[in-house]
Amino acid sequence: EFSASGLLEGPDLLRRGFTSVKNELLPTHPLELSEKNFQLNQDKTNFATLRNIQGLHAPLKLQMELRAVKQVQRLPFLYSSNIALDTLRGNDESIGFEDILNDPSQSEVMGEPHMMMEYKLGLF
């Protein structure tokens, strides 16, 4: 959690952001944990249904496609819409909460491009 300069330095705020007590708390509402795992649970259900209807090859093919799409990314300091991932999951035709209130132009997360690339490549 500390920077490479030494243990006497503070946490690296540029890469990790500010620490928050809220992130370390347990879920306060019974549905909070269910909502966090919604996409994972939905994927498991879809894969089980696909396996029952089309056989073992269909969920394996879809999982390989999802894994390949997740590896394709833009540079770390640029916003990526992940349209291919949304298309595979069937979310491309629906408008959700994150489509309206998650505008990348209003995002406060923008770092030094050179430093972020060096960190991603393991040079820093």
Automatic annotation (TrEMBL):
Cited InterPro entries: Ump1
UniProt keyword terms in alphabetical order: Chaperone
The family this protein is said to belong to: Belongs to the POMP/UMP1 family.
Top-level division of the source organism's lineage: Eukaryota
Keyword DNA-binding: no
GO biological process, one term: proteasome assembly
This protein's name: Proteasome maturation protein
Gene Ontology CC annotation, any one: nucleus
Lineage: Eukaryota, Metazoa, Chordata, Craniata, Vertebrata
